[in-house]
Design brief:
hydrolase; Glyco_hydro/deAcase_b/a-brl; magnesium; metal-binding; single chain; ChbG/HpnK family deacetylase; TIM Barrel
Length: 280
């Protein structure tokens, strides 16, 4: 039987199958805020991560106060009709129009580690100043996890604030030549052991297919819930159907029952943060 040392350290049986259900992109628009709040209150979501530079982030904090929220480190502004800027003014941070770049490839080609550090630190400190008890870090569009020097900044910030991080799926990290999992482990930074990477397919379909074979230990799945409407469609999101499907999935009682039926326990990154801060 497969076992997980992390599950044991968290106080569960080492064969326990633990699932984090995170709502990405909290704060990016009003429709996402409302759907994420519903998923946290009435659904299976255990966490959300906040896009601090986005215009709707302050509303997200007010709406979801008291729920576990991490910081979705944001270095891109990907929509054609809806853009945002970073909090800092690093020379390599913004594109020619003055916004965060639209693609991860553009960010990775131009951004220095120094500018990334300043911007990500500002995003975390801003969330804290708004009263967010930051539970973890993850990376919007994976940018902070896709270059060795940026990944080191990612870990530096996690160590500074004593919080865990999202780790990319093993089939991705195994292809990276800088050993992300080994680097995090060496620094005592906790992370999800497994990842169900649903995007760009519906989260519900992924969960239903993978729950029967979920491994022992901590698995994360992240969704992008948002309510349909003129706002969501108006800023040029090519994935509005997927986001609306995720919004329904996260409050589907049949899926909640399926998680229980397969003996899977939902937890949040807060449990990992508490363990990390205890030095456990």
């Amino acid at each position: 039987m497969a076992v997980s040392d992390l599950a044991g350290r968290l106080g569960f049986d080492k064969a326990a199958r633990l699932l984090i259900v995170n709502c990405d992109d909290l704060g990016y628009c009003h429709a996402a805020n409302l759907a994420t709040h519903r998923a946290l209150v009435h659904g299976i979501a255990t966490d959300a991560t906040l896009m601090v530079p986005c215009p709707w982030a302050p509303e997200a904090v007010r709406l979801c106060r008291g729920f576990p929220i991490g910081v979705h480190l944001t270095l891109t502004s990907e929509y054609e009709g809806y853009r945002w800027r970073g909090l800092t003014r690093g020379a390599t941070l913004h594109d020619a129009a003055g916004f965060l770049p639209r693609t991860g490839a553009e960010v990775l080609d131009r951004l220095t580690a120094e500018d990334a550090r300043a911007e990500c630190l500002a995003q975390i400190e801003t969330a804290l100043s708004w009263g967010v008890d930051v539970t973890h870090l993850d990376a919007h569009m994976g940018v902070m996890q896709d270059r060795a020097d940026l990944f080191d900044v990612y870990l530096d910030l996690a160590a500074r604030f004593r919080i865990p991080v999202r780790m990319a799926p093993a089939d991705h990290t195994d292809r990276q030549d800088f050993g992300p999992r080994e680097r995090a482990t060496a620094r005592g930074i906790l992370f999800n052991e497994h990842m169900l990477y649903a995007w760009p397919t519906p989260t519900g379909a992924t969960l239903r297919a993978e729950l029967p074979r979920l491994p022992a230990g901590v698995t994360e799945v992240f969704a992008h819930p948002a309510f349909d409407g003129e706002e969501l469609r108006g800023h040029g999101s090519m994935a509005h159907t997927l986001r609306c499907d995720d919004a329904q999935t996260l409050v589907d009682p049949d899926l909640a029952a399926l998680i229980t039926r397969h003996g899977v326990t939902r937890i949040g990154f807060l449990a990992l943060r508490d363990l990390q801060r205890r030095g456990g």
